[in-house]
């Protein structure tokens, strides 16, 4: 929590002002009971209407002042807490944008989303409550106590006796409630999971007639959640009646002991009433503190989660800004490159050495888990190599600015990702300044002009979040078009044709060939048929480079390659 | 499944909050109707609710009574004191005070017990009601046609099941008892005030319209900003979700700056609406407090005049004190009601979203007297079938006849309707015309359970649930023995890899089963199908995301699965197609060619063209 105080600093003066205003407001509130006591003790008892009007006027003036303070507090605290929330969100979002995949993997996407939104919202609420109430409680408490003791010291011990009882009650209830609420949360997660599975697997569930089984799973999770929910709510429901009982107990005690004093003539009725008011005020402020204490553990957890994000230093940074000497063409070279995932026991890639020339196609092939995608991810520095170096036009890519490096690369991921916005917006991710004509060309090459043309608004048609309103194959073609718009020196294709049927695939490849001439073309593939005529094929097996050469060469020299080829191609095709 | 996800591409942008969460700003459309339906949900809990109502009335009455009783103590003390001052009284005994305090104590205790009893019962009532609501949603999902799932994101359904139902339960838990106690307090306090002094009540009430007016005006203004706040919060969440999900692309294309800029704009809007909403709603309490003080002074003045007999019959000091306390109590429910009104509105809106889901049109029910079909020979016939996902027909007049034991391959480009054909056999969608028959029986005349028992399905996008591998395979058949499960795994060539896992068959798959590879997942679903032992098999060939060694295994497993059964295979490569008894070539939803490999090649039509294109593909590299 301490680490986050820096977000309060810019608003320190405002916060100080709030505190002062809260104090004034409390003073106003504290003055009221004694004036009321006067009105009753003197005014009403003596039937002095003039005095009542005079005192009433004073009372209203103070009350008006109190209200003004209160409104000002509301204004300041709203602005400050909202601004703190805003700044924090900005800081977290900005930080996450600098993360490399490694940090991203560590937190997980879903968790980063909640940290940026819900967790900060929690903190913002606590800041607001804190500014409005936390200061109020101690001021009210001390002020009320002073006033109460000055009104009647001998009645004050009742209050002192009530404090520990209240505190004990709050501690006991919240200690039991916290874990219950936590377990409720995880049971809700479980229910969510069952429902999500029911949706993703709806075809399989129906195909196997397993609806009753699925219902059983759901009912178990639902019942479990309900039972915990009932328990938690019954527990927390104890809070209010218990606190009211304590307060009412105090009230009875005050009247009893007060009556005794009055009967002995040591106390005025009005004073007792005033004391009564103070006592209630004090107890109320204690209750407020108690409420905040119940909120605090949750906020603390949130604060910790936010601080974790902010404290994470991305391990990929711009350490230099070295420019290549001479012409930039897109000559890519791997020199003894090894990579190991953090905390992994073995290298994911081991001593990989090859060059991918401009104007040539370099293919990477291998089984699942052989490290193909990882190798590709090293080139735009999504991860940094653990050993060795990768050179682009003779410069170690770690010595280039990330922005500069990536400007020269176009990447098409295995799983196409589109963003909400028009088709054109999505294509311009590649190059913001691209002309309409350039977009059309890219669509044409990517074999996407057909279906985009058939859309209602053509290139201006809306793609919904995650691209759910276009098919998998269409998404992939748009992702390819996006890369083409960039006109880079290096193309990275990560098995980017998997959702295409072979006809579209063939047309696309032919068109692509013309388009990417002059650039280095690095492609990860699963099917040999698609890379047979690459200038260079690199065969990976469990992270090791077990072969490099053309299709023909590899058939002769590389057993792993031959095994893959034999499983995929017919006899005639192998010949 | 790509064909299915294709919807009208030009869908208008629709912004929803994170998971479509409930927004207090959302105005319900059919307030009364939804309220009545929500109340109907509470019906089974009627006895509990009646108990809560009775307790709530009693507890509130007690708290309304207590100031009066306390007032009588003060009155007594006051008289005694005045008497002592005047020297007329002979000191005074505390006995009546003890009596009063005992009464008060009993009252307080009873009211605490009652108010806890309320909470206790209400917790059960709400949780059970929401449990039933969630159960109903789940049942409903089982009865919805697949069309529904194609057009709705998972998050949206989840959000209704959790966020919306939670909003409703929260409102029930808190607001219902609050409403009851507020109304009773209002009435009770009014009665007590009238009993003490009608004149003073009138004065106190003078301020009531002022309070109401202020409350309404403030609430109206703040609501506008609350709506704006929820709106920009939803927008912000959507943006964050999208940008984090596409992080790799943002990095690859160097779009961090644009992304930040967008974020900052939304963030700033959220800030502006946010602080205004907080500020305006924060004004409510102090303003009403001041109005309360105004009436307090007025009451005091009138009270003083009455006490001295200036205005009508004199009134005791205790009564004045009680009255003052009542005035304070009177203001509280008014503020509370303003808050509750907001909360209820959001609960109704949440209810509306839940009912919207519950009102979705359901699947066509099974035939009233289904033809029993425990087994079948496996003859499948499409007779002049036409079908469309929307009103526009995708397939027209399709006729196929498949003999028992035949192997049918379906080929065609993406979106040609291969998966659709399969979906129709499974009766995942209702056809628009014609009939599909198995062994001469229209599938609509069978029960869905019987139909699907005859059919087995292995799809490319495998689905396994979080549970052990054993449980997942056993999913294929009700009450399968361990031996049967292991035999199926062996036949599916999955036994070996399962045994290499640390816990073997008891290895627990995580959500989305990411702890085993895609190919291994497919082997498990094949084992499922083998265990189910259906008469007719539907297979979707593995594509590129599987490594070659596993792929060989999958091929073998599929071959053994198809043996002796009528089978449909959605083919992606041509090696599989050659051996098929019949090849259906599809384009734009219709079958354009049909025959064996040799026949189709000889015809030199679309298939021939398709077949040759795979060789140009290689040249293109």
What are its keywords?
heterodimer; A: 575 residues; alpha/beta; Rossmann fold; 6-stranded mixed beta sheet; 4-stranded antiparallel beta sheet; 12 strands; elongated; B: 621 residues; 10 strands; disordered C terminus
Major sheet characteristics of chain B: 6 strands, mixed
Question: Could you state the CATH homologous superfamily of the domain at 332-574 in chain A?
Answer: P-loop containing nucleotide triphosphate hydrolases
| Element order of chain B: H for helix, E for strand | HHHHHHHHHHEEEHEEHEHHHHEHEHEEHH
CATH architecture of the domain at 332-574 in chain A: 3-Layer(aba) Sandwich
Low-confidence stretches of chain A: none
Considering DSSP H and I runs of 4 or more, what fraction of the residues of chain A is helical? 55-70%
The low-confidence runs of chain B, each spanning 5 or more residues with pLDDT under 50, are 1-26, 617-621
Work out the helix count of chain A.
Answer: 20
Q: Compute the separation of the termini of chain A in Å.
A: 69 Å
Indicate the structural class of chain A. Answer: alpha/beta
Molecular structure report:
The complex is a heterodimer of chains A (575) and B (621). Chain A has 20 helices and twelve strands. Chain A is an alpha/beta fold. In chain A, α6 (156-200) packs antiparallel against α8 and α18 crosses α19. The model of chain A has no long low-confidence stretch (mean pLDDT 83). Mean pLDDT of chain B is 79; it is low at 1-26 and 617-621. In chain B, α3 (46-86) runs antiparallel to α4 (95-143), α6 (154-196) packs antiparallel against α7 and α9 runs antiparallel to α10 (317-358). Chain B has 621 residues and is of the alpha/beta class. Chain B is built from 20 helices and ten strands. In chain B, a hairpin with a 2-residue loop joins β4 (433-438) and β5. At the A-B interface, α1, α2, α4, α6 and α7 of A face α1, α3, α4, α6 and α7 of B.
């Amino acid at each position: 929590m301490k680490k986050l105080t820096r977000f309060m600093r810019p608003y320190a003066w405002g916060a100080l002002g709030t505190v002062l205003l809260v104090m004034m407001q409390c003073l106003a509130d504290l003055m009221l009971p004694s004036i009321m006591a006067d009105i009753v003790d003197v005014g009403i008892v003596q039937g002095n209407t003039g005095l009542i009007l005079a005192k009433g006027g004073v009372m209203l003036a103070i009350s008006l002042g109190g209200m003004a303070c209160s409104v000002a507090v509301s204004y300041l605290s709203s602005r400050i807490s909202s601004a703190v929330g805003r700044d924090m969100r900005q800081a977290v979002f900005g930080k996450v944008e600098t993360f490399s995949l490694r940090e991203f993997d560590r937190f997980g996407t879903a968790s980063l989303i909640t940290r940026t939104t819900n967790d900060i919202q929690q903190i913002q609420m606590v800041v607001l409550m804190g500014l409005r109430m936390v200061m109020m409680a101690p001021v009210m408490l001390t002020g009320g106590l002073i006033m109460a003791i000055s009104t009647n010291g001998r009645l004050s011990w009742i209050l002192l006796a009530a404090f520990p009882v209240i505190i004990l009650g709050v501690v006991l209830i919240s200690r039991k409630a916290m874990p219950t609420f936590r377990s409720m949360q995880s049971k809700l997660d479980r229910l969510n999971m069952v429902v999500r599975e029911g949706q993703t697997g709806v075809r399989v569930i129906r195909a196997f007639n397993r609806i009753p089984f699925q219902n059983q799973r759901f009912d178990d999770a639902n019942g479990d959640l309900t039972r915990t929910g009932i328990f938690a709510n019954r527990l927390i429901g104890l809070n209010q009646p218990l606190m009211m009982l304590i307060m009412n107990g105090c009230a009875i005690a005050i009247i009893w002991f007060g009556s005794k004093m009055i009967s002995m003539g040591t106390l005025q009725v009005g004073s007792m009433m005033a004391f009564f008011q103070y006592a209630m005020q004090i107890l109320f402020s204690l209750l407020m503190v108690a409420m905040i204490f119940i909120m605090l553990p949750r906020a603390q957890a949130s604060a910790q989660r936010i601080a974790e994000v902010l404290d994470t230093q991305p391990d990929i940074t711009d350490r230099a800004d070295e420019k290549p000497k001479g012409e930039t063409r897109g000559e890519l070279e791997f020199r003894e490159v090894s990579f190991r995932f953090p905390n992994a026991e073995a290298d994911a890639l081991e001593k990989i050495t090859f060059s991918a020339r401009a104007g040539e196609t370099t293919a990477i092939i291998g089984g699942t888990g052989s490290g193909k995608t990882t190798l590709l991810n090293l080139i735009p520095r999504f991860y940094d190599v653990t050993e060795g170096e990768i050179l682009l036009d003779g410069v170690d890519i770690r010595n280039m600015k990330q922005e500069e490096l990536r400007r020269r690369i176009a990447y098409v991921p295995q799983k196409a990702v589109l963003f909400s916005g028009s088709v054109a917006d999505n294509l311009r991710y590649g190059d913001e300044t691209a002309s309409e004509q350039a977009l059309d060309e890219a669509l044409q090459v990517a074999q996407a002009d057909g279906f985009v043309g058939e859309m209602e608004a053509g290139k201006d048609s809306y793609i919904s979040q995650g691209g759910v309103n276009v098919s998998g194959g269409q998404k992939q073609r748009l992702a390819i078009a996006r890369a083409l718009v960039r006109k880079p020196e290096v193309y990275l294709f990560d098995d980017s044709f998997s959702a295409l049927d072979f006809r579209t695939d063939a047309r696309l490849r032919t068109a692509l060939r013309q388009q990417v001439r002059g650039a280095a073309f690095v492609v990860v593939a699963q099917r040999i048929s698609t890379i047979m005529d690459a200038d260079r094929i690199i065969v990976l097996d469990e992270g090791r480079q077990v072969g490099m050469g053309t299709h023909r060469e590899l058939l002769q020299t590389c057993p792993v390659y031959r095994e893959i080829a034999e499983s995929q191609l017919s006899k005639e095709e192998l010949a | 499944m790509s064909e299915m996800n294709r919807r009208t591409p030009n869908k208008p942008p629709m912004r929803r909050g994170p998971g479509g969460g409930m927004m207090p700003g959302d105005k319900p459309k059919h307030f009364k109707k939804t309220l009545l339906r929500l109340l109907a949900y509470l019906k089974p809990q009627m006895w509990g609710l009646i108990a809560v109502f009775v307790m709530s009335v009693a507890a509130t009455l007690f708290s309304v009574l207590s100031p009066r009783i306390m007032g009588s103590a003060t009155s007594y003390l006051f008289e005694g004191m005045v008497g002592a001052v005047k020297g007329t009284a002979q000191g005074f005994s505390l006995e009546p005070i003890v009596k009063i305090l005992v009464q008060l104590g009993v009252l307080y205790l009873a009211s605490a017990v009652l108010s806890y009893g309320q909470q206790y019962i209400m917790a059960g009532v709400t949780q059970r009601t929401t449990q039933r609501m969630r159960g109903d949603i789940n049942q409903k999902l089982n009865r919805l046609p697949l069309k529904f799932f194609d057009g709705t994101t998972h998050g949206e359904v989840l959000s209704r099941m959790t966020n919306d139902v939670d909003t409703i339960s929260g409102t029930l838990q808190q607001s219902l008892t609050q409403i009851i106690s507020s109304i009773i307090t209002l009435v009770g306090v009014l009665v007590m005030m009238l009993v003490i002094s009608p004149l003073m009540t009138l004065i106190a009430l003078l301020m009531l319209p002022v309070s109401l007016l202020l409350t309404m005006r403030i609430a109206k203004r703040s609501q506008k900003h609350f709506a704006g706040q929820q709106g920009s919060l939803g927008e912000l969440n959507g943006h964050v979700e999208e940008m984090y999900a596409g992080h790799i692309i943002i990095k690859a294309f160097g779009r961090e700056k644009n992304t930040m800029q967008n974020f900052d704009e939304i963030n700033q809007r959220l800030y502006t609406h946010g602080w205004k909403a907080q500020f305006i709603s924060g004004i409510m309490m102090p303003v009403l407090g001041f109005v309360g003080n105004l009436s307090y002074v007025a009451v005091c003045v009138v009270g003083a005049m009455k006490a001295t007999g200036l205005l009508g019959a004199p009134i005791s000091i205790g009564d004045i004190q009680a009255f003052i306390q009542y005035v304070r109590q009177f203001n509280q429910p008014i503020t509370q009601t303003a808050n509750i009104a907001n909360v209820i509105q959001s609960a109704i809106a949440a209810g509306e979203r839940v009912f919207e889901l519950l009102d979705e049109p359901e699947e066509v029910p099974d035939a009233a007297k289904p033809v029993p079909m425990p087994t079948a020979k496996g003859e499948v016939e499409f007779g002049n079938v036409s079908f469309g996902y929307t009103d526009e027909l995708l397939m027209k007049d399709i006729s196929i006849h498949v003999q028992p034991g035949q192997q049918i391959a379906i080929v065609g480009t993406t979106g040609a309707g291969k998966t659709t054909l399969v979906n129709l056999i499974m009766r995942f969608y209702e056809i628009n015309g014609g009939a599909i028959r198995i062994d001469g029986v229209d599938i609509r005349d069978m029960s869905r359970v019987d139909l699907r028992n005859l059919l087995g399905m292995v799809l490319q996008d495998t689905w396994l649930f979080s549970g052990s591998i054993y449980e997942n395979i056993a999913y294929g058949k009700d009450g399968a023995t361990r031996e049967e499960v292991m035999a199926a795994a062996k036949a599916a060539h999955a036994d070996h890899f399962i045994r290499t896992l640390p816990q073997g068959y008891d290895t627990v798959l995580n959500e989305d089963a990411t702890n085993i590879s895609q190919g291994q997942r497919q082997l498990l679903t094949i084992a499922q199908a083998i265990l189910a032992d259906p008469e007719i098999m539907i297979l979707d060939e593995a594509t590129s995301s599987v490594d070659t060694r596993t792929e060989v295994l999958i091929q073998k497993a599929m071959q053994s699965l198809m043996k002796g059964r009528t089978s449909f295979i959605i083919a992606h490569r041509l090696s599989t197609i050659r051996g098929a008894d019949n090849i259906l070539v599809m384009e734009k939803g219709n079958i354009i060619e049909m025959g064996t490999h040799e026949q189709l090649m000889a015809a030199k039509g679309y298939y021939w063209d398709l077949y040759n294109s795979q060789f140009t593909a290689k040249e293109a590299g």
